[in-house]
Amino acid sequence: MKHYKLLTPGPLTTTQTVKEAMLRDWCTWDDDYNIEIVENIRQQLVSLATTQSGYTSVLMQGSGTASVESVLGSAIGDSDKILIINNGAYGKRMAEICHILSIDHTVLNFTETEQPDLKLITKTLQQDEKISHLAMVHCETTTGMLNPLEAVAKICRENKIVFILDAMSSFGGIEFDIADLDIGFMISSANKCIQGVPGFGFIIAKQSLIKATKGQARSLSLDLYDQWHTMEENNGKWRFTSPTHVVRAFAQALIELTEEKGIAARAKRYATNQSLLVHGMRELGFEALLEDSKHSPIITSFLSPDSDNYNFKQFYLALKSMGFVIYPGKVSNADCFRIGNIGEIYPEDIKSLLTAIKAAQFW
Ligand SMILES: *Cc1c(COP(=O)(O)O)cnc(C)c1O
Question: How far apart are CA 356 and CA 363, in angstroms?
């Protein structure tokens, strides 16, 4: 089978060395695994997220959504209420989780091409004193929209609201310090900007807040406190079978992030990829869904060409045969496709992609 690069929001293109790290078996009880690998990862994640103290991390089996569900299902107590900001599929998913788990919640809905309205958020918090938590997606992978992290963090701080951030597709690819932003819980996963493979997610949170979730979980396997407590007390041991190979690959991915000179350097590479991509696509006659000021450096939505010759599947297959896999659109009211620039992707790859798109000529 022909190899191709994934220009997707994750799973994404990983290095050969990350893949090779999985060619060995590990025992979940052994110190070589738990102390050397898991504990090391937990510490590194906290240092990537902040230079300040008071934060801890916990790894959780499953795709990223399992980690989101673990936080929402554990952090919101019976007398609490959460405000969810929704301007895309992942915001909507958080609302769905709250609905299914019968968590008291309010949703502020915006369209997928709209930025959350800060005044409305403040007003909602001030009008409903019961609201204790707020959840927002940082980069809405649905469109590639970057939501106003600093402004919403400030509103949460001023109103004494615990801020839960889904930074799934942005952590590792965009620089920020979670302590500066006073974030309560931040969620991400192995197969996004850290450039590992899928199999687990992780939560970086204020230690005091994780401790306060004891006994509140609405699920056994997604009990945030219990998972954290077990790792703390047993040198990194997971409660239930851990995805050992995936964890080992993640440890290698963290080494490679350091070799790249950290998040700042990676963020720069992604941003270069993204601007090359948008610029090149415009030259080819494509139009981005969002205005430039709303774009993240992570993934970009393009409007499907308005041409009888265009068909996503054919376009996709033509690019795949030339070595690139792109992503379908996920916007409800616009016909789009998406191209990611995260993962082991360099400006040279974006240039080759643009050449391939030009050669595909399906519009
Ligand atoms: C990838 C992603 C998730 C998690 O999706 P899974 O398919 O469960 O891994 C959640 N939120 C955002 C913003 C994402 O990009």
Answer: 13
